[in-house]
Amino acid sequence: MYAIVDIETTGGHASANGITEVAVVIHDGIQVVHRYQTLVNPHMDIPVYIRALTGITNEMVRSAPSFPGIARELFELLRDKIFVAHNVNFDYSFIKHHLAAAGYQLNCRKLCTVRLGRKIWPGLPSYSLGKFTRQMGIAITDRHRAAGDAEATAVLFAMMLNNDRDGHIRSFLSQGSKEQSLPPHLPKEQVAGLPLTPGVYYFHDSKGKVIYVGKAKSLKKRVCSHFANNSAGRQKQDFLRNIHSVTYQDCGTELMAFILEAVEIKRLWPKFNRAQKTLEHTWGFFVFEDQRGYFRIAIGKRQKYTKPVYTFRNLPDGHNLLRSLVADFNLCPKLCFIQKNNQVCTGIDSGSCKGACQLEELPGDYNLRVKTAMEWLKSASPTFAIVDQGRSMAEQSCILVEEGKFYGMGYVPADEYPREISALKNVLTPYPGNDYIRNLVQHYASRFPERKVSFAL
What we know:
By secondary structure, the chain is α+β, with helices and mostly antiparallel strands. 37% of the residues lie in helices and 21% in strands. The strands form four sheets. It has a five-stranded mixed sheet with strand order 3-2-1-4-5, sandwiched between helices. α5 packs parallel to α7 and α12 packs antiparallel against α17.
């Protein structure tokens, strides 16, 4: 038995919106055997644009039952049926969410008439309900009302039952089928064609624009995991509604996928990526000469057109490192902005300062130690490569870090590994780096030292 369902709502996601109308048409596979329809009081204002679209006003639903008042009847009507709808995950998410709030747990098999339509009648100009039914010669009365749309969907579904010569409905309902969980516009063939290898995947909207970039240890498993649950939240529902296709780039290792994801999010700025889109406030050491000729070391945020001598992830890391430089290279705490008061320099008491802040040491002598400290920082920033498995047995992957900064990555033949930095750069693809990528690579190198190849500059 099939329950063809259509609802009208106050908004696009169930967690913050109510249902204003429900219609259910029960079909036994041969004919319609029962109909159910009711307005529902959502106990919230119906937005004006939805009132204009559906014709359902606040006055119309004021005396209608609330959802808890119809929950038991609706649950009994649906619980042993196959839930059918046009873009089924939208209707199902609302019904399931509001039934759960009323104390009923709905778990039905689902069929999406959008996805079925693409299979049974491929190549049509549109599969939206209004245009799809018009192409199939089905008249809709009361468009954008639950009963009218449910009746039209029921007629459409009956035509699908009669024209499904390749058994798509049976395939959709078979155990293990992913069809009912996929977004309505995403072809199953694209998901089925994804490899079980590391890589980066891209979700595209109807115009081909990338709206989400993700990384994966296994591309197919990770992409499918996005559709494993049907959250009622706005973000998830908007996300699913906008996915029309998926493409990918395979990578030799999961680390390369992490790096490429970070690079691509910065490059493409996808609509539904949030975690790595926040602006980085990277800190660094800046060296400048003051009016008296002494070099000063200051900590500041790295701006777009500035070039710090050395960068670090956060302010405490920078302060700790600068204090170590002051102690190890006999620098002045005042000239390094560690001591900012007008009291006697603490470095004179500790022996680190030789009196530069009191003009007791010549600028040339003090500046030489500052230069030595900065050169030490540069030498302490290693140049190395991470050599790991490739995308095939014929190659190996390579990630290059030069003087502590991520340079790029790529693939080299399994039996021909360049030992010179210049030769290696010729076969790698340069990528913009940041502290997130640098930390990823350095952490990986510390975990797997056997995969690290160091270079002396």
